[in-house]
Amino acid sequence: MQYVVGFLIACAVGLTGVGAGSITAPILILFFHLKPAVAVGTALTFAAVIKFAVLPIYIRRRQVDRRILLLLCAGGIPGVVVGIQILKRMSVEDHEKGIFLVLGITIIFLSLVNLYRSLRSKFKAGTIDRSKWLPPIAALIGAEVGVSSAGAGALGAVVIMTLTQLSPALVVGTDMVFGLTVSTIGSGLHVFIGHYDLQVLGRLCAGGVVGAICGALLSSRLPSRALQMVLFICLIGLGVQLCVKAMS
User: Fold this and answer.
1) Which residues contact 109 (CB under 8 A, 6 or more apart)?
2) Residue 177's Cα: distance from chain center in Å?
3) Beta-carbon neighbour count of residue 245 at 10 Å?
4) DSSP symbols for 173-205
């Protein structure tokens, strides 16, 4: 079952651009009953593997703006370290419901943001370069990723679109590499702490590598906008379930 889940998540990421962490963490908690911290670490590691699989495509197409990427990483890397330290110092048993609530609200918020982006008729790049604000905002995104595993892709894209004048292609590529950087560092720290399930992770990655290739091949043939909207609605449902679990 976990092979299939990994395949479907990676395929969805390839087709829609939705972050693997946003989808994986709630599924691991709700359906495979992993502890929140273990689910976050496993989801981040899986996200890093999937993004590594598609990295050569973006580099070959020159879809990465190095200056913007460096500004994002300047804030995002320290942020994810701080977020993981916060999660490490928390008593997971005592704060489990709080973590469920944070995850649920994050998933709902990110899904609504992306749903709004999908419904917009046209991509609109920023008219003024406000890239100096990227490091502090990226630090907040990184901290949130360290705690919940979700957010780097969705929030990063919104921030880049709002604060820079990059073209859509550069936004997608730069955001993907930023998400990869944060996910890789975050997953490494989670693995070092012990927040991962090796058996689940191995099965997810085995299916995910195949799914990432299939998603990349199908992305130009299927209506990604419609797929995105369906996926975001499903994610909102997962987020609501996490919030309900936190309050039960």
Assistant:
1) none
2) 12
3) 17
4) HHHHHHHHHHHHHHHHHHHHHT---HHHHHHHH
- Read off the pLDDT of residues 189-215 as tens digits, 9 standing for 90 and up: 878 888 889 999 999 999 988 887 787
Bigger pLDDT: 3 vs 195: 3
Assess contact for 77 and 182: CB atoms under 8 A: yes
Each as own residue / partner, the long-range contacts of residues 218-223 (CB below 8 Å, 24 or more positions apart, any chain) are: 218/11, 218/14, 218/15, 219/14, 219/15, 222/15
Alpha carbons 26 and 170: distance in angstroms, whole number: 29
pLDDT digits (tens, 9 = 90+) for 63-84: 889 999 999 999 999 999 998 8
pTM: 0.73
Looking at this protein, which amino acid is placed at residue 158? V
Which DSSP state fits 1? -
Q: Greater confidence, 25 or 199? A: 199
Structure tokens at 223: 């209506």
Alpha carbons 189 and 177: distance in angstroms, whole number: 18
Mean pLDDT, residues 156-162 = 77
- DSSP string for residues in 5-55: HHHHHHHHHHHH---HHHHHHHHHHHTS---HHHHHHHHHHHHHHHHHHHH
Higher pLDDT, 178 or 170: 178
